Amino acid sequence: MERDELECFLILAEELHFGRTADRMRLSRARVSQLVQRLERRVGAPLFARTSRRVALTPLGRQLRDDLEPHHRAIDAALARAVSNARSINGVLHVGFSNPLAGEIVLKAAEAMHTEHPELAVEICEVPMADPYGQLRRGEFDVQLTEFPVREDDLSGSPGLFTEPRTLAIAAAHPLADKDAVSVEDLVEVPLLAIDGALPDYLLEHHVPTHTPSGRPIGRGPAVTNMQEALMLVAAGKGALLCAAHTATYFARPGVSYVRFMDAEPVGYGLVWRSADSNGAVQAFARTANAVARDLASR
């Protein structure tokens, strides 16, 4: 039995009037008649006795109504519970962040969420550099604030929340460290540290490009799995690292210089979650994080 046949039958069994049934279903009377006739063909016998003056249930129709009504109420109740749970903002929301600046935004959003939705606990944790989406996919995070781009078929996200300039982390003894600013074309002068992990090709190319905009190849240094390891190798002169501007503040280190780019695209950030698991808490956090990011950007 199709859903529209079920709804039509039960409403007509209650109203016993094709016009009122059509009004309640926002259908034409002809469409109501079609649905009833289709159901009767499916059953193999009349469910309603129709005359020019009245509509009545046949004995078979009364039996079907009595059998269907409790199940229909149960279905409606189950759907209502599902909708309520999807929109509810309670329990625990696990939020990941990809770097310290993203963590600062997430922390401020979590504090705001506690004020607005005290029944929701927000727990935050850093996303590993070498596995940007694994924990999200496994359900260890419900949502995460991460660098864009994200082009994963099973993940959805918000529009970009904010951007920041890119910078180059390089050994203080390297000639590029003496410049006020570098160009992306200057990357031919130093190998870039690779990232050892489960990064999709497009994201790896974003963080560790293989060529400059003019097509010249960029060398490869050792592969790393975390920021501390990367900066240790940078200080040792083993390679350079493309990073966001905030890295100079959060990861100041002897032997490492941070030089701004004059022409690199900025780093963009946004929220990402599993497409199949967006719920009220995730959407509320997205709205709150967006407001926090806007507030910080306006200062």
- The CATH superfamily of the largest domain bears the name Periplasmic binding protein-like II
Mean pLDDT: 90
- Please give the largest β-sheet: 6 strands, mixed
Tell me what the CATH architecture of the largest domain is: 3-Layer(aba) Sandwich
Tally of structural domains: 3
- Over the alpha carbons, how many angstroms does the gyration radius reach? 30 Å
**By helix and strand content, what is the structural category?**
alpha/beta
What's the CATH C level of the largest domain?
Answer: Alpha Beta
Helix content: 40-55%
**Quantity of strands, as a count:** 14
Distance linking N and C termini: 59 Å
- Provide the CATH topology of the largest domain: D-Maltodextrin-Binding Protein, domain 2
What overall form do the CA principal axes indicate?
elongated
Order of helices and strands: HHHEEHEHEHEEEEEEHEHEHEEH
Domain HTH lysR-type: 1-58
Keywords: DNA-binding, Transcription, Transcription regulation
Family: Belongs to the LysR transcriptional regulatory family.
GO molecular function: DNA binding; DNA-binding transcription factor activity
